[in-house]
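Lab meeting minutes (informal)
Scribe: AK
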Amino acid sequence: MLAVALPVAFSLSAIPVLAQPSPPTSEVVPDRQPSTEQNGVALLRVVVPDQDALDRLNSMGLDLAEYKKSVADGIEVHAVLSPQEAQDLRALGIDVRGAISDQTDAAANMAQRRSAIAESKEAQAEVDKLTVLRAEWFTSLDDQRFLSVEVKSSATDAETVLTATWDSGRGTAPDSGGTATMSRFTDAGQYMYHRFNTPLNIDQTPTKVTITSNRGGTVTVPVSKWLGERRKAPGKHYISDFVDHYMDPTEVTYRMTTLAREFPKVAEIVDLPYKTNGYRRLAQAQFGTVAASTFYVSSKVYGHEGGNDISVALVKPGTPNAALGVSVTGKDVVVSLATDASGAVSSTARQVADALNAHASASALLTAATYRGNAGAGLVAAAPATRLTDNLKAPQSIARAPFQMKALRVGKKRDGSKTGVFLYCQEHAREWVTPVTCVETAERLLRNYARDNATKKLVDDLDIFILPVVNPDGAHYSMYDYNFQRRNMTDHCGPERSDPAARNGWGVDINRNFSVGSYYDGYSGASASCSSDTFAGPAELSEPESRNEVWLTHQYPNIKFAMNTHSYGGYFMWPPGAYKAAGRELLPRVDFGTEEYFWQASSHILSAVQSWRGTAIWPGRTGPVPDVLYSAAGNSADEHWFNRDIIGWDFEVGADVYNPATKQFEPVGFQPPFAEGHEEAMEFSSGQIAILEVARSFADDDDRPRSDLKVTAKAPGSTSFTFTIDEPANVYYTLDGSRPTLSSPKLTAAAMREGAQQLTVDRTTEVRWFAVDIAGNVERGYRPDGHADNYRKERVEVRKAP
């Protein structure tokens, strides 16, 4: 029995969802069809006990934000849920907590429930070995100090407890700064390392931290500073702060074209070849009380093209034994319902839908379908004439036609000879801060070109492409119709999920629609369900929005760097971005030299972000996507890196804000009040400018790397060593006396976040090697494809075992 009754006839302005029975608690839901009810939808906290549970949650097709953090009893993620979805999830035993924001974006901070899930394993007896991955302090807003530590134990079971103790400055007692228990971080069922749930607020700057394990392991390491590198202040004539409100895609695009006209010597517009589907919908109306007696109609043409002018009426004849009939006058459709011998209506939803579809004049105007594939055996009721509507709320100044996406190209010499950088924003429609971030960057570059020497160098030496809105249709819908819209507006669902009440459930997640590590390749973090907010699309690159990105990188092969700006949570990430949940099978990690380049660049870029108002992106939210967030199958950064060797990053603007009164970090959401959104746009525009600085340094780099062999351990019968390098670079080496080439073994990372690997030989060996940096400069000018012998070499001695 369905619980929610619908009015006999209604238009799209107030369509509730027909409730479906909740599955029993024990039922496994592999690919959940979320409710598309609009009223009461909120951004909620959801806590799962571990990464396996998060992957299961992700596979249900829920609308998860790009946000994840460890909490005392598991992993906290945020999801956009209707009341019905929240109820159904709780029935399945999933811990759904209070709201971060609702549809009015007012803070709703509901009281959180906590549940403790204990997982016991037999304690291991041996003393564990502790490897400190990172130990750093940093400052954030209002010069608050924080401590971040990551430590890996050789004892990987859940019973291992690590405790950190630190001093309060040089010469102070080792435990004078404080002590805290660390949390165990797991991903896809695998132990990664221990860390703090959030960076710890501290009063004094520590010099050393000691980590002890309940298994007996202990280690003491120095604490280094994270971020805050000294940055040259902008010139006295430098200007910034060009945005004062959130902008829809029409306004953003006009702003870009206006800039190109104003600065024709250093800017132009690139029209991308694939137009979007457009901010448009078929006009619809729905009739019925419960699913079995409900049907809906959809116009053959879009609402603005005449679909909104169609009406449908259901009329009960005044005579018994009347036949079902359809008549059409202009765009007014009248269904005369059949009656039985007593004069009662006898037409079912299926019969009415079939009659409309069979009538030549009616079917030229509309199509009819029963509710979500229901057999439609229930009787319908008479209803007055109801006008179809596309229910779109944007003003008429927002075009309903397919949207022409435009990129702004900035550079003094735009002939492909300069290193290209691709900055793109708003792949996800509801992330309102991101397009104004791209707009701010464009304004800074062009309006400071004649005023500021540093800006002039960037524009003269680079070829910069700025695409401020990747998802214009969805962004229009988010701003005017449904603010939590994530995807584009293209309906791939067909009759079973294309009823009017499902209008917020259509579209493709653009950042899951690319061709590398995709859902269709078996990777996790996307869905095949057309109503899922991580819907990967009917095929890879099915959407014009994603094809436009790929086209741009192919059309301009000089593009070597990219930045995808998202919201929210305060992350700085890079490829690989996806794994297969079974065994946590990652896309190939970048090589050691490139990984080091990502880390080194992050210091420069994130220091620029911090320079605006002091916001620090946490060390624990910096790194490859799966290491700090979750698997994102078919994302654009992987597309550009693996297919085009484009060094790309992902920003998640909107870092958590620390509240000194509560001593808690508080999330900001997708659409914070513009006062906060403005600050996010300003600081991450500074980060985008810093990416351009990194790219310019790359373009000008002709310095050869220098490396050394460093012995790290000696024992009878073996010696271990590694290589040190003065800049991010790859080392190619041989141990058999042969000449090293680019086909020789390459130095790798020891493990995730652990630095260079250690090599071990069991006999005295001459090691031969050379280093190559990211720009292609080779140590000593050595030519690995030639015959010279000016590679590096050193003899590694091994003492004989007794």
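Next up, CB showed the second protein from the same session:
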Amino acid sequence: MTLMTLKYLALAIGLGCSASAFAAVTLVQDVRVFDGERMHARRSVLIDGAKIVNADFRGKAPAGAIVVDGAGKTLLPGLIDAHVHAYRHLELPLMFGVTTQVDMFTGVPLMQDVARKMRDGANAGQADLFSAGTLATAPGGHGTGYGMAIPTITSPQEAQAFVDARIAEGSHFIKIVMEEGVAGRKLQSLDVATVGALIQAAHARNKLAVVHISTMANARAALEAGADGLVHLFIGKEADPAVIGALVALAKQRGAFVIPTFSVMESMAGVKAADVLGDPGMTALLDKEQAQPLANTYGRQPDSALLTAPKALTRALQQAGVPVLAGSDAGNAGTQHGISLHHEMASLVQAGLTPLQALAAATALPAQAFKLGQRGRIADGYKADLLLVSGDPAADIANTRNIVTVWKDGVDVSALRSAQLARVAQEKLPKNNQPLALPADGRISLFTKEKLASPIGHGWMQASDAFMGGKSSVKLDVREPVNGQAVLAVQSDIVAGFAYPWAGVTFMAGKQPMAAGDLSAAKVIRFKVRGDGNQYSVSVMSKGANMPGSVPFTAESGWREVAIPFSAFKGVDASAITMIAFNAGPKPGAYAFELSDVRLMSD
């Protein structure tokens, strides 16, 4: 690490720990201003401490004030991402001008820690957070498969107690899940009666109730039950005007808002965020681990036709006056905190919003919808969370990416951005590290009764969804060699109750479990297998990825060799592999297969 990097980091640490001491009187002079609703061609804005004291200042700059020249620039309220999952990279949003995040599901301790920092005025080093905490879902439903045990709900009678428990934990609002999954990966979902009871219970405590939906039918059911907002739309190639019109009319009648989350819908459609991925000024703020999820997608092949329905519905909602909010669903494949909100605004414009409407969707509208207090606007007395950009975003929404300065609670966070830029640049410098040398014969399966060893990496181990709260199990047994190679028998019992149940055997590529190993010298994975005729999968996970790349295979009754190129594992960084897994699931039942002679080959 260079001396300059150390200096930046030291300044950034000091800023994050005692930011209020650095707040100064600042005048942004002669700047174009978007106040959260309309654009003003030329204004001056005075900041004192953590507040905007004059949003249309016309006097002489106060003595000692920092004067920022706004010529050719636009001052925006700090951006608000209306849908995130804030479980990591809490430092990133500020780098991209996102000063507030509305979180739809995260760990309760993290939510409580950020809330404490906000109360104490000690949260200048990261975005503010307003969270639902634990979402309301059914046992085995969406949200139960992320490695932490969470309370669930099964009946309307439990609704008030469930809501009260969330409020006691500090939830700012209540998020409810209506999600049946997709073909091959069905999920348990709350029924309409329980959803309605949860909404009533939230309203009884003066809390908003928002609903995760993934179908038109569930969208209607949620709105009819009294939901304050829908936090997703859904992909689809058909856009029936009559059906869309009926849903829009219902949303308007009920006074609901909608967060489309195009960033994650595009990921489901296999469409990458090419605008921000291709912007070096933006990607310079992402280290390798942070950049990888943004470059991944859930969909294997791009199919932009799947965005036909959400685009048509979003356009109709906006035209009808239903509040449309910008939310990226950051935390999922195809997204990253902070940077994805800029892409989300561009996607809203592509769907039919004007740039000004997209700016409002990422500032004033979420502040109003989620009752976030005096933020999201440039007005007297409001929080001095601000974003200064070059150019005019009302003419081209891409200009939000031309970031000049970000202020959080009146503090210029340029030191944090500079430290991040320096750290990422340092990471990208050429290194002398070499990929792991593969065994001469490529073989990584050295199975014995005593140990499931490998000449590289940590070795092999059994693994199942049990460590993430699931109920599946696996039993391993080393049997007599076939053609000179020991055979590993894998017996898996896949049990419903986890979102994506699985069990099998895993090769850990790093020196320690879940550490990364550089397997970029390997181009093909080969193995021999036989079994019960069921379909299994090889899954490869790399550091920083939200989801593994997976390729199916069938374990037939006779031995056969399977060869899979590493290029088939989409979204995987071969230089940072954490594990290679051979798994049964997700269909419940008993599975049995035998594995032998696993090799990583350079050709």
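CB comment: The chain has 16 helices and 29 strands.
No objections, moving on.
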